[in-house]
Amino acid sequence: MGRYSDELKTTLDADLGSLDDDARQLDLIGLAFDTFSQSVRSISDDLGMTGTAADNATAKLQELASNLVRLADTFSKASASAADARTAITTARDAYRDLPDGALSGWEKAGIIGLGTVTLPGIGTVAGAVAAEHISDEREAEREAKARQALTAMSTAMSSAVSTLPTPPSFGSVPPPPPPPEPSLTVMLDEPLLW
Description:
mainly alpha, 6 helices
């Protein structure tokens, strides 16, 4: 076998089950974030209070729900990328299995050599051994060309799968927690005096 067919053969070693599991897990995580988002929206719809505090809380909860939806979309897109990668590998595996035979087998070579002389198109009449070697080289070259074509297709498909991987959403910078409240006089007076 040649370099390209050997490289294409390595797709037979790929763990497609792991890619399936990864895609399923990413999908489940996306569904969970979507469910969380719906729950947060439900909470924001009925806070049990009114006024400015309720409006502010509702706005923050709606923002949180939107962020959860963005995360859900991110995981769904990552799942689709994993599925695309799996398809690329499966297609390459099938291409490997469909490759034409390469070099002649020992029996085929013996049969051609046994003819004594052979007329090859574009070359003329040559000894059987020369003809067998020439035919074997041509078959191997065809196999390598098809293997290279399959590897190029797989590389393109894998690049596409990687390029569709989403960038995790940014939710802006998280503000630092507020400083602890200054002790107030009323709090200090409520504490027992230790004299």
